[in-house]
Amino acid sequence: MSTANKIFTNTLWQVVIRIVNVFIGVFSLALVTRMLGQVGFGYYTTIFAFVQIFAILADLGLYMAMLREISSAKDKESENKIINNIFTIRILSSFLMLVLIVVAIQFFPYDKVVKTGVIFFMGTFFFQTLITTLTAVFSKYLDMAKVALVDFANKILYAGFLLYLFVYGFSLKAILLGNSFTMAVSFILLLLFFKRYGRLSLSWDFGYWKIVFKRSWPLAITVVLNLLYFKADTLVLSVYRPPAEVGLYGAPYRVLEVMATFPHMFMSLILPIFTAHWIAKKSQELKQSFQYNFDFFSILSVAMLFSIWLVSRPLMIKLAGPDFALSGPILDILIVATVGIFFGTLFIYMVVAIDAQKQMIKYFFFAAVIALVGYFIFIPIYSYWGAAYMTLFVEWLITFFAWRVVYKNTSLRVNLKVFYKSLLAGAIAFFVAKMFGAYNIIFVLLVSWLLYLVVLALLKTVSRAQLKNIFLAK
């Protein structure tokens, strides 16, 4: 089986499960927004953003470091050493962040509901960080379908819990506690799948810890700077604007976050391949692999962009209820930022593969400063509009910087032919499907997707050789 075929098989499973997860997530979002309303969902969004910031801080660049380390491990013994030591570091950093969460929340001018809710949500943070770390192992073995399956189980369990609360009575605390419980169950399930790849234990090789920190500190700084521009918008919004406005922004932002998980999951499969080509000095194979993935992201992200533009307002009403109709236009802006995240993720993983993370630090710092200044200037005046447009600008700024670093180190020239054809196909599908705007959302989307695929085929966007390599190669 070719590498392309393996990636396709894994990606197919991920896509199928991810599509199901999206529908389950939509159902859960609909329940939460209807139970909590604008104000309550604003509190929920603030709690989620606050805890997520510390979850990202706890990463310390360890996920990417582990993925790169085990991708170059010489034998199983070395791989187990890497996994267990980095996993131990992650547990300690997560416990430290739990303490910091409780202390830090006291210095923010939040309602008591938020400060108490954070405590009930901390379990979600802790187990999610552990799951993220172990995901690197499944990425190496192109077995991300199991990670997607764990995520599926989590979504099913949480949706069932929310449905119970919706029928028999609910509270914000119960919703948060249920999230923590289901994440703990997901971690246990992932451990069962992990057994085929090794035996997990705590390891205290401080000499190796120093090596890990030495290699991961550029990633750690990058993660912190990334955090400042990716999550600061919600926090600044929660400080300057009322909870109802935070809720209106939080609903479409959740859609962005759901969609943004795919490129990271997909690229975690590709990173070991990029790294192997780079180490072996196979520049032609590296560039070809990158181009294939760029073309794939072009086709996928353009379809996503025009689909959301078609149905954003009715979609948000269906998802979150009539109170969130204004979230539709906000989603129109954030979906453009999501496309930037897709391409930015591709270039950033390439930066990691060629070991050029340190060169990205200054760019992340610059983007973080621009983002923070923009948030503090525009959010107090323009509320969620200021947050959305700044998010869009900064995501594409990061994409540009990551491309610049990749080009500087590899002289990689990206062929935009597939991207342009995708835009043309997307525009045609959009304007034709727009005429069916009075019909059901699902019908409109199906019409647009069918037209999109037909136009892509007519434009010969993907060659037969590429399709043969993916579907038929042994």
The gist of it:
The protein has 474 residues and is mainly α.
Topology:
Elements: H1 3-59, H2 62-71, H3 76-104, H4 112-140, H5 144-168, H6 172-194, H7 206-240, H8 243-279, H9 283-320, H10 327-353, H11 357-382, H12 384-410, H13 417-434, H14 441-458, H15 464-471
Helix pairs in contact: 1-3, 1-4, 1-5, 1-7, 1-8, 2-3, 2-4, 3-4, 4-6, 5-6, 7-11, 7-12, 8-9, 8-10, 9-10, 9-13, 9-14, 10-12, 11-12, 13-14
Features:
disordered C terminus, mainly alpha, transmembrane
Question: Can you describe what's shown?
Answer:
The chain has one domain (3-415). Helices cover 86% and strands 0% of the residues. With 474 residues, it is mainly alpha-helical. The chain has helices at 3-59, 62-71, 76-104, 112-140, 144-168, 172-194, 206-240, 243-279, 283-320, 327-353, 357-382, 384-410, 417-434, 441-458, 464-471. Residues 470-474 have low confidence and may be disordered. The protein is globular and about 55 Å long.
Question: How many domains comprise the coordinates?
Answer: 1
Order of helices and strands: HHHHHHHHHHHHHHH
Largest sheet features: none
The whole-angstrom Rg is 22 Å
User: What is the helix fraction of residues, given as a range?
Assistant: over 70%
N- to C-terminal distance:
4 Å
- β-strand amount: under 5%
Q: Characterize the overall form.
A: globular
Mean pLDDT: 85
Structural class: mainly alpha
Low-confidence stretches: 470-474
